[in-house]
Amino acid sequence: MIYAGGCHCGRIQFEVEAPEDLEVEDCNCSLCRMSGFLHLIVPQSKFRLVKGAESLATYTFNTGVARHHFCKVCGVKSFYIPRSNPDGVDVNARCLTTAPRSMKVVPFDGVNWEASAPALAHKSRA
């Protein structure tokens, strides 16, 4: 299924291909907990930025591998390149404007990221 999504002000718009029934992670790390990000990790080939590259800003921290993209105008982080899957894209399921048939939210222990991250490695494979 092709989902549409984007930021609050609409300057950032994307499409992502994913199953009709989604399973997303709810991470408890400090950044995800504070922003309410629900993780839908897909291969880069399944993600397309439709509009707004010029409105993106990027935040990095710690190792600098993860590239957290957000809208310079409204501040919403609708997707990013995750450290766990640098060959993929992590979409915030809360930013989808097309509703999935169902969405299962599973906990992810981001507080203990080093031990937990290998469980996500398969998600960016085509």
Q: What does this protein structure show overall?
A:
The strands form two sheets. The protein has a seven-stranded mixed sheet, with no helix packed on it. Strands 1-2-5 form a three-stranded antiparallel sheet, with no helix packed on it. The protein has 126 residues and is mainly β. The chain starts with a strand and ends in a 10-residue tail after the last helix. The chain is built from two helices and ten strands, in the order βββαβββββββα.
Instruction: Give the integer mean of the pLDDT values.
Output: 95
Distance between the termini: 15 Å
Q: Runs with pLDDT <50, length 5+?
A: none
Largest sheet: 7 strands, mixed
**Count of discrete structural domains:** 1
By CATH reckoning, the class would read Mainly Beta
Gross morphology is: globular
How many helices? Answer: 2
The tally of strands reads: 10
Decide which structural class fits the backbone. Answer: mainly beta
H and E order: EEEHEEEEEEEH
Q: What is the alpha-carbon Rg in Å? A: 13 Å
Strand content: 35-45%
The helix fraction, in percent, is under 10%
Physical arrangement of strands within the biggest beta sheet: 6-7-8-9-4-3-10
> How does CATH name the architecture?
Beta Complex
How is the CATH topology named?
Answer: Metal Binding Protein, Guanine Nucleotide Exchange Factor, Chain A
